[in-house]
Design a protein that fits this description.
The chain is mostly helical and 410 residues long. The protein has helices at residues 2-21, 25-28, 34-37, 45-70, 75-94, 99-127, 132-160, 163-168, 170-185, 188-192, 221-250, 255-267, 269-280, 287-306, 312-321, 325-335, 340-372, 376-397, and strands at 203-204, 207-208. The chain crosses the membrane at residues 42-66, 78-96, 102-120, 132-155, 167-186, 223-244, 256-280, 287-306, 312-333, 345-369, 375-397.
Length: 410
Amino acid sequence: MGIKMRHMTWLFAAAIILTALTLRTAVTVVPPLISTINDDLPLSATTIGVLGMLPTASFALFGFLTPYVIRWASLERLIVLSIVVGVVGQIARVMAPTTPLFLIFSVVAFGGLGAGNVLLPPLVKKHFPSKIGLMTALYVTAISVGTALPAQFAVPVADATSWQFSLASWAGISTIALLPWLVALFSQRTTSDPASAPTPPDTVAGKVAPAAPKMNLWRSPTAWGLTFMFGCTSLNTYSLFAWLPEILTQAGLDRAHAGSMLALFGALGLPLSLGIPIIASKMRNPFPAVVVMLGCFVVGYLGLLLSPAQGTWIWVAFAGLGPGTFPLALLLINHRTRTQQGAGALSGFGQGMGYTIACLGPLLFGLLHQWTGSWTAPFIFLFISLLLLGAGAWIICRPKMLEDDFAPAP
């Protein structure tokens, strides 16, 4: 029995990590192929802008909806459904005969990914209540890998086959991620043997947690703290992904050098994803770590604003260390809730509202540059967002549980 329980543990670990690997593939495979797709499906500048906003908008919408569905079905069945929806969207969009249909099926694909974003934290809490830091580190690292690989291989695969095959091939990874969930769902050991069943919803580390009270997260300081921490982190990250090459080329760097700096900015997410959750899980209040990462953001932004052509890699490296608040925010979803229902609700609200905030980042950054003709106003906008990030982090980092926001007054 013990051996079979260990097998199930490894099965769920593989399922969570493989699923995390797929959560960005349908997004980052598209930008390198825009010009190639344009040969078959007309993509105007406006359409490209809409396509750039669709991922965060879809993540926000389906982030809001997923916690309501959690009440009606198990987390495992919902993650299977979300993966299937993502696969259908990815395959259907490459068969789309028109640009509007391509965009619609892209929303379907991103919707499946958005639901997966919300479901993974409560799944970690359910199946690995005593290893939340380690599993968060592993699955956030998998998200980082899944963000980088499609961008690297999209063009070579498209050149060897077609852009349709290049886009649809990543649905194969999602299909592989589906297999361990199906094995778990249809295994008699997970459905009929209480000894090998996963941790009950309201059990954490072998202790029965109190039932979660009815929660209206719109009135929860904890939920809003996570929202601003998560949302402003994503706002800054997506703004730099969109505009860093332009900032550097206007400063005199060639496009290849600017591209290398963008790669450096993205690559720093890997060590942060591995290290931050493990370190922060041992801290009662990880806000000091947030202060360090905010300082990295500030140093990097000041360097990029005042001296972008000199010491560029130093400024980009500092800016790339700032988004370490992203894996920390995901860790806090579980560390600031007592039950998997609470984790699901906080995950949906924080990520739904957070991605809504993140949608504004690249757009406002670009508009401020267009209106003023300089990069000063856009960076002031980012500095203001860092203040909101810090305020949200101060709230969510406090050792106070989401359920405490709704506990009856003594």
